């Protein structure tokens, strides 16, 4: 959506364009935007067609919400479609939402109201009539006497009376002939047809169960009476066909009673249903008492599965079934901790559980331990409370390493761990794992590609070629492997040009061409061939190759920027530089930037060689600064913006980042991403420049992101606050310190810590610490204090002491306030 539609008053956009945008949004199914636009139109001029379109947009929005299970929100949206006569646009969906929310009586009243109503679409009228029939039988509501008995509403009321009388007669055990006479008043085209089939099947079930099933087959699974049919099927003798769905306890009780089983069975099911409704603890107690009537192993298994939901019944379980193993006990406690979001406790219990079964790597116990460690790695990625054992700065890596030790043949873990090593610049571990994986999985393309990259990174070029050729033998069209080798030869060609040996550079490019796939030309190879060819005086063929490569790279600014970047990386002659500057200037004047062009530049700047040539890249970005500014008004998504922000930060273009974030904030002011980057731009990427108010604001953003489970945003903010800027360089390389490390302090260190604590408390007023704890929680308050103290003269102390100081300040304030409340 444009800035003008997002923030400007209505008169800034003429009605026809706005109406066109609204209509297009409705056509594309962007109902949220359509609602916003049509509301503006209706506010300006309440035309009937715009009101109708707004109603249709609300109905479309309701369908999307209902599909996501958000029935209350869907009901609210549908209420916006209410017409003057009280009807809504999609009555079937409205009634279904009420049913899903358990409001059966209200649903029945509304459904009956729509019987014979011409506002119901013909396609959904039969389904709504049947749903109304089922609801009315379950929750009878008064029916108005029809004016015309031959109308659709009149017939429905007549059939409703016959259905109710038939059901009552069957419950009271009336003779079959009497029930048949009542059922004959319900036509097979009636909305109550399913009830007729159900009662018929029940009456003949004992004598002819096959015929009874044939009758029930006439009720489709999507029928409103499907649950009733399921209960009847369960009651039929001589086995049952595959059920439509798992019968509920109420349906099971119904089946037991219809079958005429002993009263004890029926009573047991009733007690089971009652216990289930009372919660998992009550259900576990009930099941534990059934060991004499049900298979003991099945009862034990069921109770064990219930324990995570009722961990307080652990002693009761062990009294009934014996002591749990160390593994099972800690598995139960870990699952229970996860259910109450106690991630530290969950980590502790999962670790004990894994260690209790880990000894035999590769065996079944080792495989189970591997599963647990992978689960802990996922939790560590999502929850900062998961800290690991302090052996790595990144707990997810630590747990994946343990998983791989227990289950070394789990390929997804190998690939995930390799990716994390690369991401966090743990090159030694990356190269070791890539080499080992290539031997363990010699025919896995993804592993061979990682091994190729690793060999290139450590300049083992012969190994890289060997891995690449092996990969192409398995997968001849693997473009990634071909591209890696082309880039490797181009990198060598750059070095030769810098050494003023253009002839050897041309030879490297010729070898690169051997890796090019027929029919899939490489723009990078063409650009470099053109640039090196011009160095060798191969005109005009060289310039033609250069221009061909620029076109393959997308042409325009993106293409000429890429050519200029390659020229800068090889530090070629000024003759090429003049041509490139001229073409790059001309391209900027030709057309405004597009998202695709800018993202292409972002991708180019992210290249390894470009990252190592910050000065050259910064100069090129400055050269196209005016052109890039024009792209700030484009509709960037948050994911696209992250990549651009990283580029701007890498070349210190924080003025561009600020402009982009400001414009994005105008388009979507509710998105916190833009405000985050405004803060980053103002501080020039250095957290030491943050004011206390900005730091508090960032912590608030992180907390909101965690609540909505947006852990990527939360981690991004945390990394900026804790792991960026010159004053945090030492911290990034620091090792996590466990409590065991801190227990080694001697008395002198303890005295020093107490002195530092006193100074810290003097510099950090308890009231402010209290507010930080209330707003951020204990853990985040400790982190905030660490950053605050680091900016003071105390900030040069070792990281373990720094964190322990902050932790003691927080604990002291919590204890003081707790004592004050007690007094």
Could you walk me through the main structural features you see in this protein, from its secondary elements to its overall organization?
This protein is mainly alpha-helical. Among the domains are: 3-155, Tetratricopeptide repeat domain (Serine Threonine Protein Phosphatase 5, Tetratricopeptide repeat); 176-321, no CATH class; 738-817, no CATH class. Helix content is 70%, strand content 0%. It has 46 helices and no strands. It starts with a helix and ends with a helix.
Describe the structure using short key phrases:
disordered N terminus, 823 residues, Serine Threonine Protein Phosphatase 5, Tetratricopeptide repeat, 0% strand, 46 helices, disordered C terminus, mainly alpha, globular
Helical run tally:
46
- Enter the CATH topology name of the domain at 3-155: Serine Threonine Protein Phosphatase 5, Tetratricopeptide repeat
What does the average pLDDT come to?
A: 77
- Unreliable spans are 1-15, 239-247, 253-267, 724-763, 819-823
Helix content: over 70%
Q: What amount of the residues lies in strands?
A: under 5%
Task: Name the CATH class of the domain at 3-155.
Answer: Mainly Alpha
- Report the C-alpha radius of gyration, rounded: 36 Å
SS-based structural class? mainly alpha
Count of DSSP strands: 0
**Name given to the CATH architecture of the domain at 3-155:** Alpha Horseshoe
Distance between the termini: 58 Å
What would you call the shape?
globular
CATH superfamily of the domain at 3-155: Tetratricopeptide repeat domain
Main beta sheet: none
């Amino acid at each position: 959506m444009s800035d003008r539609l997002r923030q400007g008053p209505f008169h800034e956009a003429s009605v026809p364009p706005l109406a066109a945008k609204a209509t297009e949004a409705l056509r594309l199914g962007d109902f949220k935007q359509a609602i916003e636009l049509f509301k503006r139109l209706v506010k300006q001029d309440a035309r009937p067609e715009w009101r109708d379109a707004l109603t249709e947009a609300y109905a479309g929005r309701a369908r999307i919400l209902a599909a996501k299970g958000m029935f209350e929100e869907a009901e609210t949206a549908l209420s916006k479609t209410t017409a003057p006569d009280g009807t809504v646009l999609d009555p079937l969906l409205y009634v279904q939402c009420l049913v899903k929310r358990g409001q059966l009586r209200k649903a029945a009243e509304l459904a009956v109201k729509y019987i014979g109503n011409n506002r119901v679409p013909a396609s959904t009228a039969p389904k709504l009539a049947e749903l109304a029939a089922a609801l009315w039988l379950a929750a009878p509501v008064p029916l108005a006497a029809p004016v015309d008995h031959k109308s659709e509403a009149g017939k429905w009321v007549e059939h409703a009376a016959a259905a109710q009388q038939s059901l009552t007669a069957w419950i009271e055990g009336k003779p079959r002939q009497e029930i048949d006479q009542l059922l004959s008043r319900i036509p097979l085209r009636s909305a109550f047809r399913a009830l007729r089939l159900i009662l018929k099947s029940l009456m003949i079930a004992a004598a002819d169960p096959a015929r009874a099933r044939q009758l029930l087959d006439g009720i489709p699974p999507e029928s409103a009476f499907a649950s009733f049919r399921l209960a009847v099927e369960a009651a039929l003798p001589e086995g049952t066909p595959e059920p439509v769905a798992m019968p509920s306890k109420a349906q099971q009780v119904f089946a037991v009673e219809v079958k005429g089983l002993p009263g004890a069975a029926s009573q047991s099911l009733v007690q089971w249903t009652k216990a289930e409704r009372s919660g998992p603890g009550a259900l576990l107690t009930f099941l534990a008492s059934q060991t004499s009537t049900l298979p003991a192993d099945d009862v034990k298994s069921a109770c064990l599965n219930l324990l995570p939901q009722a961990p307080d019944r652990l002693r009761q379980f062990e009294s009934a079934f014996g002591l749990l193993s160390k593994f099972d006990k800690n598995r139960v406690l870990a699952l229970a901790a996860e259910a109450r979001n106690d991630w530290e406790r969950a980590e502790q219990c999962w670790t004990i559980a894994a260690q209790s079964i880990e000894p035999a790597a590769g065996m079944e116990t080792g495989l189970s331990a591997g599963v647990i460690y992978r689960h802990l790695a996922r939790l560590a990625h999502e929850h900062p409370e998961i800290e690991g054992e302090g052996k790595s700065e990144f707990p997810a890596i630590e747990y994946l390493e343990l998983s791989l030790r227990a289950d070394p043949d789990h390929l997804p873990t190998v690939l995930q761990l390799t990716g994390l090593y690369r991401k966090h610049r743990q090159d030694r571990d990356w190269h070791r794992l890539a080499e080992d994986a290539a031997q363990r999985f010699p025919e896995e393309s993804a592993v061979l590609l990682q091994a190729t990259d690793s060999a290139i990174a450590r300049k083992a070029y012969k190994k890289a070629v060997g891995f690449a050729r092996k990969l192409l033998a398995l997968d001849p069209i693997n473009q990634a492997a071909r591209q890696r080798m082309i880039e490797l030869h181009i990198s060598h060609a750059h070095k030769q040009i810098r050494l003023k040996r253009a002839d050897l550079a041309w030879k490297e490019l010729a070898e690169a061409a051997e890796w090019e796939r027929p029919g899939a030309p490489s723009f990078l190879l063409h650009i470099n061939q053109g640039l090196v060819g011009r160095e060798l005086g191969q005109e005009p063929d060289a310039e033609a190759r250069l221009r061909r490569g620029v076109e393959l790279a997308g042409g325009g600014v993106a293409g000429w920027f890429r050519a200029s970047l390659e020229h800068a990386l090889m530090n070629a002659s000024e003759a090429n530089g003049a041509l490139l500057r001229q073409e790059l200037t001309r391209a900027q004047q030709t057309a405004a930037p597009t998202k695709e062009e800018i993202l292409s530049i972002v991708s180019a700047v992210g290249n390894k060689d470009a990252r190592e040539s910050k000065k050259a890249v910064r100069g090129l970005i400055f050269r196209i600064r005016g052109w890039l500014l024009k792209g700030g008004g484009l509709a960037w998504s948050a994911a696209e913006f992250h990549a651009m922000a990283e580029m701007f930060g890498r070349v210190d273009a924080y003025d561009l980042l600020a402009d982009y974030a400001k414009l994005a904030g105008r388009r979507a002011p509710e998105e916190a991403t833009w405000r985050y980057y405004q803060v980053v731009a103002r501080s020039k990427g250095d957290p030491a420049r943050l004011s206390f108010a900005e730091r508090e604001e960032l912590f608030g953003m992180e907390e909101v992101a965690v609540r909505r489970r947006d852990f990527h945003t939360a981690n991004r903010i945390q990394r900026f606050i804790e792991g960026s800027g010159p004053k945090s360089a030492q911290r990034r390389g620091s090792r996590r310190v466990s409590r065991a490390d801190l227990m080694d302090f001697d008395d002198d260190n303890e005295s020093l810590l107490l002195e530092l604590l006193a100074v810290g408390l003097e510099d950090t007023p308890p009231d402010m610490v209290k507010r930080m704890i209330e707003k951020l929680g204990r853990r985040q308050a400790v982190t905030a204090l660490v950053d605050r103290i680091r900016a003071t003269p105390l900030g040069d102390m070792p990281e373990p002491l720094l964190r322990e100081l902050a932790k003691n300040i927080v604990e002291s304030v919590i204890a003081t306030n707790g004592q004050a409340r007690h007094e």
